[in-house]
Amino acid sequence: MIKAETFDFLNKLVENNNRDWFLDHKELYEAARENAIDFAQQVLQALTKIDKQVDADIDPKKCVMRIYRDVRFSKDKTPYKNNFGINFKTGNGIAELGYYIHIQPGKSFAGGGYWMPPAEHLKAIRQEIDYNGAALNKIITNASFTDDFSAFDQQEQLKNNPKGYEADHQFINLLKLKSFAAMHSLSNQELTDKGAVQNIVEYFTKIHPLNNFLNQAIS
Q1: Are 36 and 84 in contact (CB under 8 A)?
Q2: pLDDT of res. 71
Q3: Which of 31, 139, 182, 216 is deepest in the core (most CB within 10 A)?
Q4: CB-based contacts of 64: which residues, under 8 Å, 6+ apart?
Q5: pLDDT tens per residue across span 32-76
Q6: What is the largest CA-CA distance in the chain?
Q7: Measured distance CA(58)–CA(62) in Å, rounded
Q8: Which domains, ranges and CATH numbers included, belong to the chain?
Q9: Which positions ≥6 away from 12 have C-beta within 8 Å?
Q10: For residue 143, is pLDDT > 80?
Q11: How far is Cα 46 from Cα 56, in angstroms, rounded to an integer?
Q12: Of 214, 216, 217, residue with least CA distance to 97
């Protein structure tokens, strides 16, 4: 589970997002990071039993994303992220395709799928939907999926039909998508509960068929 102290650190970081404060309180960061790594390891152990395309031997430290922001091209020059991101890649090794846990006070979530695929992968996914859209539609309309991940086909999408596909295509709503991600919000209490790992793995279990479909499309 995520410790209350980890959320406390992130709240304090929001109020003191500067290098001097961070260095003076480095021990708080290190403790929070270790908590995130331990949490990642527990989730990874359970997840690899469900999805064999997730590397069971990966160092959980590599799953926890850096807290340092790249400010080179951003107007926001605050040096640190106000969250911990935990990413589990699937078979194709693409950072944006797999499972993800976002730990941020009041804004945490668990999710998965493929966020904003590049053009070549987007084309391949659309081809797979064209050939086998019924399979994807069955996954995202299943009651166990919609109970936790609503409005999948309403995420970022094209205003017009993608090139080569007509408006009357049976799955035009899926073909117009620019992302194929499923997300479920998590409260602070859910993450600090002893059953946090089990609950997140249950969400990931429901995302697993979606990731299988997407990995097959781009393979």
Answers
A1: yes
A2: 83
A3: 182
A4: 33, 36, 37, 40, 84, 85, 86
A5: 999 999 999 999 999 999 999 999 999 999 999 999 998 888 888
A6: 60
A7: 7
A8: 4-218 (3.30.930)
A9: 25, 28
A10: yes
A11: 10
A12: 214
